[in-house]
Specification:
The chain is of the alpha/beta class. The chain has helices at 25-37, 54-67, 86-93, 119-130, 151-162, 182-186, 198-207, 215-225, 229-237, 240-252, 255-269, 275-298, 302-324, 329-341, and strands at residues 43-47, 99-102, 139-143, 168-174, 189-192.
Length: 342
Amino acid sequence: MTDNAPGVLEGAIAPSVNTALYGHQEAQDFLAQSYRSGKGHHALLIEGPEGIGKATLAFRFANHVLSHPDPSTAPERLAAPDAASAVSRQIASGASHNLLHLTRPVDEKTGKAKSAITVDEVRKAGHFFSQTSGSGNWRIVIIDPADDLNRNAANAILKILEEPPKRALFLVLSHAPGKLLPTIRSRCQPLRLSPLGDGELTAALKHLGYAFRSDEEAHKVLSLAAGSVSRALKIINYGGLDIIAAFDKVVSQTGPSQRKAMHQIADALSGRDNEAAFDFFVEHILDHAADAARAAARAGDLATAERHARLTSTIAERFRVSAAYNLDRKQTILDAFGDLFG
């Protein structure tokens, strides 16, 4: 089963309807037992790399809470949601009066997700909490991910976190919690998720209908995916291997041949109908710069490590600004290459 809603990759299942979760058993047990104790925190910061199941876990826990509104009688473990239950059907359809999913809104003109979660989206949370729940149930807000909050939206969320309504639960997802406002982090209980193991990732892909055709393919995809289902899908369905090969060609060359290779990859990724492949490239170039920083740090070359760390931030900011102001994508890619190899 797939879901072609904005932001959902080809071959993936939207977290709101996904009943299968691979890995993270310790985190699941913690959530179930913390809730059952009646002493759970009102805001959880679920952190970890993109594509490892944070949103699926958040929706699973939300389903658990809404299905068992009295913590003292809730099961000791999270179970796969019952797709036929009223709670699951309401969550899957986006019709639950007790769950609000805050994510990047869709641009009505383009049909694609905008570059940030805006303060207008966060105001929905204020309206959501102002309404009285007819069932007296919990009110749950999933912020997916909080990394996408712009500054005004982040400050608006902070105000709600500082004075949370009764029976309110915030599930704040983050791929890079260090980039969040420190005041938001301080008001959340962190729950760190690790990348999936090879067996878990293989099982997750099989659940999505993909089986490796050879041991060689499995080794290549698993090593490059780094425990992320979304990264694996970008490699499999969006030409990720070709992007990596083209990037490696740029790295291995110099002079005119390198500039030619840069333009080739920029031309291939500049189309607006190629969002997932472009996102994969952005992730890859940032990983390349960050890996260089880590390698230098391990070697004790702190000056080089600091330089590469600043470079990583510069490139990330370049792509962020480009997305926010809809700048020319090809030129942004070439500028990023200039930052890296200039």
